[in-house]
């Protein structure tokens, strides 16, 4: 028969483990849940653009995605535009995404601007910080294929988590010809470790438990989401752009990834903050994007 002291110790350990696991689960539940931000008033029609509200499956069919298709009479090239964590097609670039899309369309590009799974008007999902979202990007590529665009004509543009998503998509599909990754992280685990206390107000001791819960519940090891490991597999032409004043993901992340991919280029945008390159300097940002895709996309 257990002594009172041993019973007390057993109960104390059981309660401590339960509290620890509850905290770990709560962290994963909060950090993996996207915010629904969508403003139907912000649409391409504001800029005089003809567009279609569309729905299409992610490649593999595990999510249904919402987006805009903005056709262009030239039919020379098309871009898949991918927002970041907690965003949508209506509110990227500090709320100026529609203006940015209009600038790209004026230059001659057709566009698909999508809501990643769990975001905007797309089907429910939890964050995987680019792993599953990459299939959303490839679903948009397939949609443009159904509109008659060849792979040589389709480019990818992603911001922040969207940058990770387009890089991982290109690593999976060698026929993607051109990618722009803006303010992307090379190692999400490093971002999470750096931001842990600010985001959770909990000691780092809880991090291993959260990692375990994420693996069991979501099937994703959040500390192992490392686009830099997949970059060498990419066959596309890649431009890494990064905000020079990025306070969340330092420009060195883009520089590290570029160093792993010979032939890629880097543009560090002076005066820009995280995921707001167009807002900081619409003319310079648009020029860099259009010049790159003009060179890399072909009929």
Any chance you could write out the topology, listing elements then pairs?
Layout: H1 4-31, E1 52-57, E2 64-70, E3 78-82, H2 92-95, H3 97-106, E4 110-115, H4 133-146, E5 154-159, H5 161-172, E6 178-182, H6 188-200, H7 207-218, H8 227-230, E7 237-243, H9 252-259, E8 265-269, H10 277-280, H11 282-296
Parallel strand pairs: 3-4, 3-5, 5-6, 6-7, 7-8
Antiparallel strand pairs: 1-2, 2-4
Helix pairs in contact: 1-7, 4-5
Description:
The protein has 299 residues and is α/β, with parallel strands linked by helices. Helices cover 41% and strands 16% of the residues. The protein has helices at residues 4-31, 92-95, 97-106, 133-146, 161-172, 188-200, 207-218, 227-230, 252-259, 277-280, 282-296, and strands at 52-57, 64-70, 78-82, 110-115, 154-159, 178-182, 237-243, 265-269. Strand 1 and strand 2 form a beta hairpin.
Q: What are the low-pLDDT stretches, counting only 5+ consecutive residues below 50?
A: none
The largest sheet is: 8 strands, mixed
Tell me the number of helical segments per DSSP (H or I, 4 or more residues long). 11
β-sheet strand percentage:
15-25%
Query: Going across the major beta sheet, what is the strand order?
Result: 1-2-4-3-5-6-7-8
N to C succession of SSEs = HEEEHHEHEHEHHHEHEHH
Give the overall shape, derived from the CA principal axes: elongated
Q: Mind telling me the C-alpha Rg?
A: 21 Å
Helix content: 40-55%
Question: Terminal Cα separation, in Å?
Answer: 81 Å
Beta strands, count? 8
Integer average pLDDT: 95
Structural class of the helix and strand makeup? Answer: alpha/beta
Quaternary: single chain
